[in-house]
Amino acid sequence: MNRVGDSGSEFDRHADGGRSDDVSRRVGDGLRGMDRSAGADRPSGPSRPWRELGEVQPVGSMPDLPSLGPTVPVWPNLLFRELLAVLACLLVLLVVSLLFNAPLEAPADPATTPNPAKAPWYFVGLQELLVYFDPWIAGVAIPLVIVFGLAAIPYLDPSRKGEGVYTFRERPVAVGIFTFGLVGWFVLILVGLVFRGPGWAWVWPWTHGPVHPATEASGSLPNVVGVPLLLAYFVGGGYLLLRRIREWVGLGALARVTFVFLALAFAGVVLKIVLHLAFGLRYFVSFPGSGFSV
């Protein structure tokens, strides 16, 4: 218990080999003895020679921070270079916009629908997902999971290991998942832009027609098979992942469950695309009356 004088200042610590701490402890013990002996008649208000602030309980220890080595101020060493980089990028964009016209097509004609009607390049990845999933999954559920996962990264990965040095050796899980997702998204964009022709059929860039006719996958698992498989995937996969990350420092129960859900959803999207391309699988589970099909 800390004791302070009327002025509110703490007992001074002197560099005397710890003798001041010993004196402070003895004075505090004496004051506590006086307080116990006084009982209910102990002084209060201005006549009270000391007052209690409370007990301070340690909640943990300071982490061992890695040695940063020689450092320099952020300004101007970093921010000035970033400012120059931004100005250089703006200059390049300005020159490109002056030298090259935008690849605009003919004005829209309500009587003629282009085939295929492709979204802008940054949305073609979502349009390509429509081949493998229902519209509500490809256009709503998957984008929401992506945005939620990116927003949850600071809360799911509190480790400071490899901070500022983003190498695969330092952070194999984080770098691997993010790189795979980023490359996979651009692969979907590339496929939608280059390899999809009329009727969204697969075409090669050097041909003028579809090599493979546009066929829609029709093979779906019966619900009596698909439902147990889907439950086994999430329950069994979740159990294995939770056992794997049990020793992760800094992750609470909610963070672990969230990470497991995002990881299984991410892997499930890739698995569904592979099964669709390899075996023509359309749905694991299908309930046409409710509009829920996965």
From TrEMBL:
Keywords recorded for this protein, A-Z: Electron transport, Heme, Iron, Membrane, Metal-binding, Transmembrane, Transmembrane helix, Transport
Topology versus the membrane: Multi-pass membrane protein
Region (Disordered): 1-56
Keyword presence, Transport: yes
SUPFAM superfamilies noted in UniProt: a domain/subunit of cytochrome bc1 complex (Ubiquinol-cytochrome c reductase)
Molecular function GO labels: electron transfer activity; metal ion binding; oxidoreductase activity
Localisation: Membrane
Superkingdom of origin: Bacteria
TM region positions: 83-100, 136-156, 177-203, 223-242, 254-279
Pfam family, one: Cytochrom_B_C
Record has Electron transport as a keyword: yes
Recorded GO CC terms: membrane
Domain Cytochrome b/b6 C-terminal region profile: 64-192
Feature: compositional bias, Basic and acidic residues: 10-39
Protein known as: Cytochrome C
Organism from which the protein derives: Eiseniibacteriota bacterium
